[in-house]
Amino acid sequence: MFITLDLVKQHLNIDEYFHDDDEYINHLILVAEKVVEKHIDCDFSVLVDDMGMIPSPIRHAILLFIGNLYQSRESVSFSNATELPLSFRYLLDLYMDYSGNMDIKPDKPKKRVEVKREEKPIEKPEYEPLAPMRPPKENEHCGKSHKGNNEYELFMQDVEHRNREQE
To answer: Is the overall model pTM greater than 0.85, yes or no?
Structure first.
């Protein structure tokens, strides 16, 4: 483990004499380190310096992730939470390995399951033809005559065209 229990307790503002959650916090440390390693797609052994430490931004991202897991122990939140800029993802994206050459082996091999779906033809509903359009009366629109109006003339041409098609 690259993150110590004392460091996490300091980050979470937990009194050093409070030991009830120590086992849980140690579990969160293991989970967070694994998640961050998978997220950046790079084994921590590649990033370790001469003193056996991983880079500070990655350590801080792990602490942020542990803090999130410790505070939100359920997968559902009923408050409006927003992601802080320049936090977890930003810190990890600095070390993201885009080559795809990750040395970490998955815990269990993933099996691909193919689901066969029965394809049914889409039935198109039958629609009744539209009712013929009624031309507006001459004084129907705000008391103004439609004669000489391009929209009225286009509408009448469309009505005549539909009438010819129906015959």
So the answer is: no
